[in-house]
Design brief:
Layout (H helix, E strand, L loop, with lengths): L1 H37 L4 H12 L3 E9 L5 E9 L2 E8 L5 E8 L3 H8 L6 H11 L4 E10 L2 E10 L2 E8 L5 E8 L1
Length: about 180
């Protein structure tokens, strides 16, 4: 009987922990959905603003973010030669809120400056949206994983949170994870 109580108690604890994890994912997804709804600028708009401000370079990541007050902005990273330029761009008005520039000291980022993907961010977005036509993409990154150039995308599709990794040269989907809200 004592063993049975232990098993039941363990099951209850695990169930509460799993429920807690679900509510964290749900709260995070709701927060991101609110950010998407509040943003007037698209990912493409924010990339254009960052590149115009940088003068040259290659966008390697963009993420729609926000603060506790509900203010939404894009974090955009541009690599230009041996310089990494980071911008916070108001997702409603398009103003540069913060700009930071530093020397690239990461080997992977240096590799990214020297490689060209056959596909663009927009091509990667299209691949995700062929599978999920109503998806709203809020995070994109060009990255090197195991020596392979990839796009990593995150999106919301109704009650689903989607993470997809796409080969930046062939367009092949390498990984896909979908979580229900």
């Amino acid at each position: 009987m004592k063993k049975m109580k232990g098993i039941i108690l363990s099951g209850l604890v695990l169930g509460m922990l799993a429920g807690g994890a679900t509510s964290v994912v749900s709260a995070d997804t709701t927060k991101q959905a609110n950010r998407i709804a509040a943003a007037s600028l698209t990912l493409s708009d924010a990339k254009t603003i960052a590149l115009q401000t940088a003068g040259s370079g290659k966008v390697v990541s963009i993420d729609l973010d926000g603060n506790k007050a509900g203010y939404v902005y894009y974090d955009v990273t541009v690599l230009d030669g041996h310089t990494e330029k980071e911008y916070k761009i108001d997702a409603v008005a398009g103003n540069i809120l913060k700009a930071k520039q530093e020397y690239i000291d990461d080997y992977e980022d240096l590799q990214l400056t020297e490689t060209d993907a056959q596909l663009s961010f927009e091509d990667a977005e299209s691949i995700l949206q062929q599978r999920y036509p109503q998806a709203k993409i809020y995070d994109e990154e060009l990255d090197i994983k195991a020596g392979q150039l990839v796009y990593k995308l995150e999106a919301l599709n109704g009650r689903q949170k989607i993470k997809m990794t796409i080969d930046a040269n062939s367009g092949r989907i390498l990984a896909e994870k979908v979580k229900q809200k």
